[in-house]
Amino acid sequence: MKEIELIIPVTSKSYEELDATERRLVDAARKAVDGSYAPYSNFHVGAAILLENGEIATGANQENVAYPSGTCAERSACFWAGANYPGVPFEMIAVAAVGTDGKPTPTPTAPCGACRQALLEYETLSGHHVPVLLIGAETIYRLPSVQSLLPLAFTEF
Ligand code: THU
Question: What pLDDT, on the 0 to 100 scale, is given for residue 156?
Fold first, then answer.
């Protein structure tokens, strides 16, 4: 028997500690929250994806009275990017949220499992690691890749 330990590398930073590109993407993700339609959960999420062509694709969660028909911010952003800029690699992803109290979440918001899997597809297509910024009111977590968010992922068949 052999025990394998999986380590997820996370850097915790303040907004001031981010570089200019990271700040730009964090600002875009925070702004993207405004597009959230979340009358059922009152949890508003925004996502921003920097593309290799310099464009920033954004998305926000869109809920539906038939709950499973809604979609998360991350998938709305990455599917929009895939549909509008097919084949353009992703450079960086950021996620922000405003909680049910109407305030930016104090701790960073992390993508759900389905979004991790969807984002991983685009990281694979991009051909390189795509850093992820998970945004909280005071703290921002930076992960070096989507892969690091989804260890032991199903990648090919
Ligand atoms: N949600 C996202 O948009 N992204 C996440 O990473 C987690 C959850 C949405 C789905 C739903 O509209 C609301 O947040 C509450 O779960």
Answer: 74
- Active-site option among 63, 74, 91, 123: 74
Ligand 1 atom closest to the Cα of residue 45 is 3
- Tell me if the pTM is above 0.85: yes
Which element (helix H / strand E) includes 139?
Answer: none
Q: Whose CA is nearest to atom 14 of ligand 1?
A: 43
Residues with CB under 6 A from ligand 1: 38, 41, 43, 45, 61, 63, 70, 72-74, 109, 111-112, 115
5 included as an active-site residue: no
The CA-based angle 39-42-44, given to 5 degrees, is 105
117-147 pLDDT, tens per residue?
999 999 999 999 999 999 999 999 999 999 9
pLDDT at 155: 80
Rounded Cα distance between 41 and 83, Å, is 27
